[in-house]
Amino acid sequence: MPMRKKRRWVPVLFLAGIIGITGFLYMQSRSPVDTGIPASPLYSQALEFEAKREAIKQNLEVKGKSSYVNEANVYAPFAGTIGSWAVKEGGQISEGALLFEMETEELRKQLAIKQANVEKMQTEQKIQQAVQSLAPDDSRPGGGTMGEQEAFSRFTNKEKDKLQQKVDSINLNLVQTEIQELNRLLSEARYASTASGIFLFAENKEPKKVTEQELLGKIVDLTKLKMVATVGEYEVFQITEGLPVDIKIDALPNDKLKGTVTEVSKFAKSGSDGISKFDVTIELEPHDRLIAGLGLTGTILIDEKDDALVVPTLTVQRDDDDYFVYVLNEGVPEKRIVRIGMETAEQTEIIEGLQEGETVVLQ
């Protein structure tokens, strides 16, 4: 019997202990803490920030890929067979140096045939002119005249001869034009590089059979690279040529370099979301690890001031057309209208409405 009574009291004592601890913690949470600051419903949980003068920079982050500034495409001058290549993939080449040479045997055969045809046609013209100069006139010996039938026959023969001379002259001009074209092709058979740099083949390496104006490769200047980024219609008006850019290589986060905005496109292109986009070209400084095709992140310095009165951007609020902050006045925050200037994600410049050293609060 005594054991049963003792067991009944155990749950009761445990429950009483829980209630006591809970009550103590609740009373502790309700007890006022002496902070030395007068209690205020607005200020009790506010954060203080001093308005101070310091440098402020407005940046715009853009993303894009690296590409070569100077790229000269190489095309086949005419349809035919490339006899030999003077450069390998990735080889260095100088402007004016031989890049490749087309086979010209077939062209030379065609040229010889056409030149022979020209000589033949010119000889025939001379013979025909000599025959015409020896032809009798329309009068008969002794002053007689030809009959009507004979006169008509001679007239038609002369007209035929004139017409044939015109046809022969046209054919001769055509053949001479073809000879000029063949000579032009022969002069282009030895293809000289139009620029200095590294030669890179297109899809086929050292192709043999080519068509006219087929893309064979390109010559690139590895010392000059650029970044092409895309911005929206609101950002494009903030960017001007000459602005400095800090560049970070996405694959090499520890490698940083400088750049300069060289071109801002004036022609919009439609993005996948239907919003207008504009290309921004940034020329990059040389870097030994920088190649084309790398993902880059650029930070464009839009504007900066060395001595601006600034507060944290989070403390600046907007009410209709006015901006305002809460300024601490004798321990109590009061609303004050301000005029802002430069604005970044972290700081906002205050042009009017606030003095250096005043304290703004974030509630």
Q: Helix count?
A: 3
Structural class: alpha+beta
Please summarize the sheet with the most strands.
6 strands, antiparallel, barrel
Inertia-based shape? elongated
Secondary-structure element string: HEEEEEEHHEEEEEEEEEEEEEEE
Name the helicity range.
25-40%
Radius of gyration: 45 Å
In short:
This protein is an alpha+beta fold. It has helices at residues 2-30, 105-134, 148-188, and strands at residues 47-50, 52-68, 71-75, 80-85, 92-93, 98-102, 190-192, 197-201, 209-210, 215-220, 225-232, 244-249, 252-264, 269-270, 276-284, 295-312, 317-319, 322-329, 332-343, 347-352, 359-362.
Q: Could you characterize what this model shows?
A:
The structure is a single chain. It contains three helices and 21 strands. It has 363 residues and is an alpha+beta fold. The strands form three sheets. Strands 2-11-15-13-12-16 form a six-stranded antiparallel β-barrel. It has a four-stranded antiparallel beta sheet with strand order 3-10-8-5, with no helix packed on it. The protein has a four-stranded antiparallel beta sheet with strand order 7-6-4-9.
Secondary-structure blueprint of this entry?
Layout lengths: L1 H29 L16 E4 L1 E17 L2 E5 L4 E6 L6 E2 L4 E5 L2 H30 L13 H41 L1 E3 L4 E5 L7 E2 L4 E6 L4 E8 L11 E6 L2 E13 L4 E2 L5 E9 L10 E18 L4 E3 L2 E8 L2 E12 L3 E6 L6 E4 L1
Antiparallel strand pairs: 1-21, 2-11, 2-16, 3-10, 4-6, 4-9, 5-8, 6-7, 8-10, 11-15, 12-13, 12-16, 13-15, 14-15, 16-20, 17-18, 18-19, 18-21, 19-20
Helix pairs in contact: 2-3
